[in-house]
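Blinded run. Sample ID left blank on purpose so nobody reads anything into the name before looking at the predicted structure. Input follows.
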Amino acid sequence: MKKFVSILCLFLFSMTFSLSISGQRPRKFDPQQFEKRLHQYIATEAGLTPGEAAAFFPLFDEMQRKQRLLFDKMRIYMHTNTDDNRASLKAIQAMDNNDLEIKKLQKEYHQKFCKVLPAGKVLQILKADDKFHRKAFKRMVRERH
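Blinded prediction complete.
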């Protein structure tokens, strides 16, 4: 999970900066387009029917919105002064608590997903989501160079 959070944060962080090496500007990040591509990828990879997709994606998007808030909190602690041990300890504890909140949220929504879809499809969706984000990150890195 920490790997996923780190990759997602790095991906979103790097999308905000220009490509100084090549002098090019990155394509402007379009969250709606990203979400649309993610939905299409998951639906295809997991073989969702239109009815299954209609039942699943509202829950998935709700979970994503809540996770995004937690990821935003996590970013704050990356700017902690590491020379200040008290602040560093506080940041570590807050990040650990945030990780636990993310896992609780995922568990809650995975249970909700299993109420509207078979568990096998849910697992396919989770794998597809991870695969999509790994591919997006690789594509972003490739475009930087």
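Unblinding after everyone has recorded impressions. The CA atoms of residues 133 and 140 lie 10 Å apart.
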